[in-house]
Write a structure and sequence with these properties.
The structure is a homodimer. By secondary structure, chain A is α+β, with helices and mostly antiparallel strands. Chain A has helices at 7-14, 18-26, 49-60, 65-73, 77-109, 140-157, 170-174, 218-232, and strands at 4-5, 34-35, 42-45, 118-123, 126-136, 165-168, 177-186, 197-201, 204-212, 240-246, 258-265. Chain A contains eight helices and eleven strands. Chains A and B meet through helix 1, helix 3, helix 5, helix 7 and helix 8 of A and helix 1, helix 3, helix 5, helix 7 and helix 8 of B. Chain A binds a DNA duplex through helix 2.
Amino acid sequence: MTATVTVGEFSRLTHLSVKTLHHYHEIGLLAPASVDSSSGYRRYDTAQVDTALLIRRLRELRMPLPEVRQLVETSDGTEREETLRAHLERMEQELAHTREVVTSLREMLTPGQPALDVEYRFIPAFRAYGVRDQVERELIGPWCERTFRQLGEVGTARGIFATSGATYSDEFFTDDTGEVVAFLPVAPDQEPADGVELVDLPGGFFAIAVHAGPLTDFDRTYGALGSHVAEHCEVAPGPIRELYVVSPGDVDDPAAWRTEICWPIQRIPAPKG
Amino acid sequence: MTATVTVGEFSRLTHLSVKTLHHYHEIGLLAPASVDSSSGYRRYDTAQVDTALLIRRLRELRMPLPEVRQLVETSDGTEREETLRAHLERMEQELAHTREVVTSLREMLTPGQPALDVEYRFIPAFRAYGVRDQVERELIGPWCERTFRQLGEVGTARGIFATSGATYSDEFFTDDTGEVVAFLPVAPDQEPADGVELVDLPGGFFAIAVHAGPLTDFDRTYGALGSHVAEHCEVAPGPIRELYVVSPGDVDDPAAWRTEICWPIQRIPAPKG
DNA sequence: GGTTGACTCTCCGGCTACCGGAGGGTGGAA
DNA sequence: TTCCACCCTCCGGTAGCCGGAGAGTCAACC
């Protein structure tokens, strides 16, 4: 047996504010059992308490309302599980990320610049197996993992063991989404392969810094190199490159990783007096 | 030595979007080193990269901009540490909370109502030592811990070992902040004590449900009791009470905890046919 | 039957931390 | 000069609500 109650009472039963209940009604997420046509007063059924509490819990987990709606509206248990699992996974990732950031933050607040060795190099044009994609910043980790495994497989099947790398468009950094091209250098006469394209990377001068260790401080090296370039060089158009000299695919120990960041420049600057 | 760069370049150095940089300029969080008075073009100094990266990291941790500003503007290391520590603590709490919610969510999605025994009781008016406060929902845990320890100390010093409890105003639940009164019943002629006030709790009828175990599912018991009351009783004005029959202060094992939720009603309803 | 007071309604604006786009001015190279 | 990439400001929108204004409603009390 159930009974109907006013918004205020329902608010007390569910610990959702009246404003929130109005909002959920408006967007059709949790409509009252009935609405008085003359006064406009809402009446909720006590049977709706469970749904309301479910919604409240999901919102506590910061689940976006569209997803909440999906979950609440599906009766299919499997689909529910799936949506929920996906959300929890995202939260786990966020958490891991948080830990990383905290680590690097500590280093930043106890200052002491890591020395930055900038090297100038001319890199000739070369051909490579490439995978081109529009990638969102957040998803770059999994994307790289997938893509470099794929490139690695294609490469080893053909006896190629070059240092792979990637180019990142400016928008990738500034708009949090943009073109990324993962590449594995090959001989100029290399034959095409399934699933990857043949790309030609232009040659040019680069200011290059090596980032050693895990990626927590990566942006600092970027910033330092970029500052250096701004101070001593003329920048050239074209995307920034990274070369994965020692990568997660090579060794497990993050401390051993080495990434070269290559910033395109017009020419090698004259040494200052 | 430093150099100045345009927004676009600075954006590339810091991985903050141009829009974001504009915003930070507008709110005065990170003003460019100079602004061309005729064209309005911003110029940033490469020395600002570090600050920008610090801000970016803090924002990744969802730190609100006012706090970020505070942290960035203070040069005092101790104060920085303090702000940061406070923020991290909040995040840890949030995390713990998340775990709880996830646990209870699982239970909710695999349905099976926990049986709810509702009991009707008349509770006479009584006097108590009380601590009254405006409390925010989020902070209720620490508040209770503090307050009941205090009440406990005052009580034991006077040989009082009654079951303590608290009243929660409606606003506490519906607006996430409201008056809470923690109380420890005493004899009518009890003398005042330092740090606590003497309060008189009115008598009346209550519908009472026992919530057993940890507090993860607390809101469900609330909802179920409230629904029951809406279906079978006439509600009475006055705040809801909780009685901590077996509390965290008594035993460590959450499974042993017992909380009585007392919902004020007008009278004991006649049993239905 | 009128009045009170608690409750409810809708509508509008505001909050955070930006994003997207329109419409228009700038700067350096060809 | 003309191009094009870059930059400017201003306006509006986003999510998930909150706060308040102004007005209607409900039940109780006198």
